[in-house]
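A quick aside before the break. I want you to see a complete sequence-to-structure record at least once, exactly as it would be stored in a machine-readable document. Don't worry about memorizing anything.
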Amino acid sequence: MRIGMVGLGRMGGNMATRLLQRGHEVVVHDLDSELTSRIGAAERATPAGSLAELVAALPPPRVVWVMVPAGPPTEGILFELASYAAAGDILIDGGNSRYTDTVRRAEELSDLGIHLVDAGTSGGVHGLQNGYCLMVGGDDEAVLHCEPIFRALATEGGFAHVGRSGAGHFTKMVHNGIEYGLLQAYAEGFELLHASPFELRLDQVASLWNHGSVVRSWLLELLESAYARHDPDLSAIRGWVDDSGEGRWTLETAIELRLPTPVIALSLLSRFRSRQEESYGAKVVAALRGEFGGHEVMES
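That is the input. The structure line, written in tokens, reads:
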């Protein structure tokens, strides 16, 4: 199948490569023209200098995968592509768009006769080698047409059509909310190990727990790899943790549905705390403890 790939960053570039390795033809475009040319030459993809050129290089029904940051960048590219597309064409949003945006966009594009398929994509930078997990939403006709693409990208058993438009991004949102909780649990556990009175080798513990333990996981394997790359104190890494939106959206959705998600909520708040050089709230607590109990106050 011949497909367009818009956005050639850490995910999009690898996905284009994996499709090419599995016999598909890929027309590539990125705002960075040098990146477009480099990937085109290195991977034998067809470079396109513009979205209009990319659409023109595809046979109908055209299939274009968009892999750019969520929000205005995705919105702008989808609707610019729609201006060049024709009825029956398929646009795939593989980024982490908010599912409510996807539902709205799907309805607006449907009025133009264009299908929008949302492909929640997990696998990160390791997806090129290991394959991706694809949570796909959209109408049956469009998803069935694109299935060879999804099968080529996915690891074995790693593709499912989970429902109508928006369902893929909703599923990926919850997936990422769960990820927040898992990461925080590992973080707290290994902080305890690091502060213990014993001379524990944290790389050894990570490796040990990956053999038969109920907490073994791919994330723990990645931690083992991180310890091998860095010193046990992770001294070269600053403890500043960003969030790209999915944890917030998961929590907001849980509130709307009146469902308790305390682990996800606290893991999100912990990320906020990681970005503070000094917590004013902690200063207030320290000051109050000094006032009512005469407890020692550390001066900055």
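Two observations worth writing down. The chain has 13 helices and eight strands. The mean pLDDT is 93. We'll return to this after the break.
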